[in-house]
Amino acid sequence: MQESNADRRVRQFQWAIKLAFLAATLIFAVALIKLFQTGLNIDTNLRSLAPQAAQDSLGEQLINQLSGAASRKAIVVLASENPAKVSAASDAMRTRLGALAEEQNSVVRVADMTDTVEQYVRLLEQYPYNFLSPSLRPLLEQKDDAQLTQWVVEKLFSGTSQVRLTGFDRDPFGALNDYAFFIQERLAGDSADDIRSVVHGGVEQHFSVWQFDLPADGMAFSTQEIWIEQLSHIQTEITQQFPEVRWLQSGMIFFAADSAQSAQKNINMVSNTGAICIILLMLAIFRGIRPLAGSMLSIIGGVSFAFVISHSLWNSLHILTLLFGASLIGVAVDYSLHLYYFHLENKSASQTNHRSHFYRALLLSLMTSIVGYSALAMSGLETLRQVALFSIAGLVYACLLVLMIEPWSTKKLKSHDRLLSALTHKSIEGLRRIGRVPLLALFALAVWIIVLVLNAQIKFDDSPKAFIKQNQQLFENERIVNAWISDYEPATFVVVTGENVQEIYEKIAFLHARWGDIAHNSAKGLLGIDALLPSPSEQAKNYSLNAALYTNQQLATALVEDYEITDSEHLSRLETEYRNWAGKILTPADLLKDLPGFPQLWLEGESLVTALLIPKNTALDQLRNITAEIPGVELVSMVEQTEEGLHHLRTTAGYYLFFALLLITFIFFCRHGWRLALILSLVPAAVLGCIALIYLLANVPITLFHVMAAFLVLGLGVDYLVFASEMVGSANASNEFANALVLSAATSILSFGVLGLTVLPAVQAFGMTAALGILGNLIGAFWLIAIWRNIHDH
Amino acid sequence: MKNWLAGIWLFALLTVQTVADSDEKNLVEENTVEKNAVEAPASTAPAVVTLPAASKSLTPQSCLQFAEFRQEKYLTGLPKPLVTRGKVVVDCERGTVWSTDKPIRETLVYQMDGKQWLIKSATDKQEIKNAVQKRVGTIISRIMRGDESFINKYFARETIENTTRLVPSQKRLKKYIHNIDLQPQDAGMRVQVKRVDEQDMVLELSNMRPLTQLDAASCATLLQSTLGCDLIFPSPAK
Known about the structure:
Mean pLDDT of chain B: 72
Structural class of chain A: alpha+beta
Oligomer: heterodimer
CATH architecture of the domain at 64-223 in chain B: Clam
Order of helices and strands of chain B: HEEEEEEHHEEHEEEHH
Strand order of the largest sheet of chain B: 6-5-4-3-2-1-11-10-9-8-7
Structural class of chain B: alpha+beta
Helix content of chain B: 10-25%
Helix content of chain A: 55-70%
Largest sheet of chain B: 11 strands, antiparallel
Low-confidence stretches of chain A: none
Shape of chain B: globular
CATH superfamily of the domain at 64-223 in chain B: Lipoprotein localisation LolA/LolB/LppX
Number of helices of chain A: 30
Strand content of chain A: 5-15%
Distance between the termini of chain B: 66 Å
Number of helices of chain B: 6
Distance between the termini of chain A: 40 Å
């Protein structure tokens, strides 16, 4: 018997599926091996979304390391109206922390600059003439031998000089020692030994401050969890023992832990409920394990394939890709549902023609989804390109898997959906009253006219704050601690670039001068490299000024004869060494290379870049105005950069959403001609317009997550439309396949729609948009079916 | 899920920054504590000063004390110690005035509220703020005035013959101090601070005597200098 064209096409298609699956699986295996070799790397930096953030990679690197260091700082304040209680609580805290430090798995460490200062002093000793404290410098400039002698003697014998940081042999005049104390004071943080006081709300509050350094991997969840757990134990003990003492805490880790905890609880609860409902629904309809397992296998396979392929291409995956990519489940599950209903509907019929029809629908559905996601790849943004590839790869593999396991998953397939069929039938029949193309067009047009008219009133929110649930208690704590103790902004810096070290120092000096005029009342100024190390020219000048000490005969006489502290041989040796000094300069790069404990404020590449730390509660607008006046000086706010990045991403994604709709329309045009293509495109357009209108009326600000969810809505919508037009909308088609659409919508809503019930704004935005879109798409698909039926009946 | 939460973490990280933008800048109304004028010292019954020796208590039996001192300071790289002499008055309720006469003239004041001052002349008074210098000053002054709670908090006691040895009990202090030995002498006491960096200090207190009362005038008479006394014993007008 000669093979019909339809049979041949189906056979060729099935071969193509097998070959494609084999090739994809081979690629999957290779990429998986690569992943095992390179290890997993998840990029959580939202700033990488900002296209301008990567312009100056050196400055970017510097800011990242500084903000990373700031994020690994935490502060605890013990406060009470009663100073004795604070003192007692502090003692208990000290004891408890001391005991904890002895434990092997302890990660809670009190910040301690002692070793770093010690290292710094040893480094300074290699440059004995380059450093002068601000108090000694004017004396040396005056070159008054008697006054200098008095200064040296007083410093030696003073009761405040019980301890010297530099050795007498190398620094008998104490000039370097004086500088070392000066720099030590600058570097020493707030000490927990001091009980300090402020007036807060009209009441005098006494408090002690505890600063902690998180471990280097403090960003990792496991370390974070252990750190929080260990500190929480101490908190419980202290607050139980001293109920009058308030425990205030400040630091990113507390927000992170709070967010992670609430997110984990909430999302787990919601998503688990959704997953259970899906399983129950699938079991209720198909009454078998195979269909359920088949669907799950295609989803897991699709997402895993997408994950591994994307990771191997980028060597990391952005957190946004993961979040958005996970939504593939909603689309991927549709393929198996459509397949099951195709089997149920065509059990007794000659299958070849129908199968050809089904494959075409499936291919069209996949193609439109690919085209939709490809639009994202054209945005030019790496993150969106990654999202696009992830989605496309996932859908293709899920679709191939569905077809590959078809014989197994559809074996003895039965459905128990009489109720669903009745509901579907009634819905379609009900919609036939308005089942006319002009009405659909009018509706879509009306929606978009209203949206465009009210466009100005649509609210947008690109702040990272819009994505998290804010714990008011933590924010209040943060405010109080910021007000009580002086610290630096963790994510805002002044960045200074230049061609050489001296140029940068001059820019910093100019900035200090300008800022000092405005912020003269500020207790704490901008902290830059100049606070840790004098400029090259200043170091050279300090060397010259030291002559007043090393060549001072009166001083030598006083030390040798009057006080008999040293001998003339020692002093003349030092004078010779001073005269023969080669003028070596300590550079910022050399300083920071040897002192990893210092704030890493300096980086060198093709140019030089440094950052200045900004005290909290600084008037940033004023500072920004001043930095704008100085070339090569810029105020960089990570929050603002992130906000700009999110704004850019949201607007770009919005444009590409429209572009994706155009591309999909073009595919419909190629398949069905322009008239049908326009009609099909009306549904997703109307659905997206309705969602925008709902948010407008509900006064909900639109965020990036709303827009990203809109891509899912479009993908699902097109999927429904393809199957509605190919499988249900044709002449003599039954409503059976519409059940697949309802079931698909139900599973999608249970997967993502329920996320709209979470308390986390980002997840809520995604879930709510997805739920509205899925519902809209379903209604739209039924409306189209009603229109086809009316057209066929007439 | 954990990876997803990393995103939330980052949002949190960035959000902390925005707190600083809030306009709650009036939260701190002032940053200093206004202490009320210290009341007149209670007249303490004169007593024979029994120095700690092997006794359990380090607290002198009189709250008000005067002594002359000779201090040796050993510095790294200095072949012989630097020697200073002077006088000291201690009021266990108000603070300590440490007046050096030779070879330089200066006064150190350790107030009860923790503030420490270096006074070189009537017009040259500086608050000591350096953490290391303050810490050393605190230890010396607290031991001088027999601050039991301080000593118990930071030190463990050992008794070796007639010497009471204070050994730091906390890791942080152990980094700097080996031990402090307190040894009674005729009408005085020898205090030796052995430091980890070998910058030791030996303090010999002599002519130590309890006082029945102490005010600005008597303080100035005892120290032969008015410097510092007014900080511990402010005149009623102040």
